[in-house]
């Protein structure tokens, strides 16, 4: 566990980088057109690569306060999007009125793993990483 704590910012940055590259791969290589909610999730995901990266390079001590607003908001959108795709929230509450439907799932690996679910997992993992980083900081001071 100590190796994870020592490298938690690098792990969080890797999650952000892999998820960003994965979303670009899905749109540019697989030609999956993102829906409106996917675009909103990307708005909160893509800056994390640069914010966490700059925080590591500049040794920003309060990095979690820059990252958590992005991950919590992006995670909330991903959670809502997942509930829509799994049919837990009715289609009449869909915010996507033009373009690709937000309820049309793109499945990855297994029938139940969708793009918004992966996005949600990423936002949760990065948030958890920031929590671990915060706890580590508190113990050191």
UniProtKB/TrEMBL annotation:
The keyword Membrane applies. Keywords: Chaperone, Disulfide bond, Electron transport, Membrane, Oxidoreductase, Redox-active center, Transmembrane, Transmembrane helix, Transport. It is a multi-pass membrane protein. SUPFAM superfamilies: DsbB-like. The keyword Transmembrane helix applies. Belongs to the DsbB family. BdbC subfamily. This is 2-oxoglutarate dehydrogenase. It comes from Candidatus Doudnabacteria bacterium RIFCSPHIGHO2_01_FULL_45_18.
